[in-house]
Fold:
Amino acid sequence: MLEFNGKQQLIDGMDAVMDHDCPTALTNCIRDLLCQLMSERALNLPECVYQCPPDHYARRVIHKDAKRGYTIMAMTWGPGQSTPIHDHSGMWCVEAIWEGQIEVTQYELTDTKTNRFRLEPRTTMRAGIGSAGSLIPPHEYHTISNPSNQQTAVTIHIYSGEMSECNVFQPVGEHWYVREARALAVDAA
Structure:
């Protein structure tokens, strides 16, 4: 796990809100916590989270809470790097932009046929430093990208569990996709 100034303040804040039963109330509280910590610049993330491999976005574990099960990750997005359409395997997530900008496109599952899924784009949001949002199943299908062709972006993601795998959706026709399980790697500090 990565150590940095403000980490304990983030963990204490998470511990204070994790008792909510409602995912919407919980993710709203976490989003508010992250926005507050970002506006105060209370977190001094380690230098490694600003380094991104040229061939993929980086995922680094900041904290994994054994008691409550949530995981906090820092992700680093090089210019133009993005995810395919994916889900969060039924987990809620709060995502916040620490550095740069990201673009999130949300998709709606509108039909299924055997092993094919119809996913239609609904909203695309571009957000910058200090912004945060949440994903709550079943509304979890999305892409994330760094729209800049020059600047690296850094995001903080808090998941309800350990996101070590997800489903990605490969296109097979207009708005039709096949689902593929994918293991997710964690980059070294």
Summary: DSSP finds two helices and ten strands in the chain. The first helix runs from residue 7 to 17.
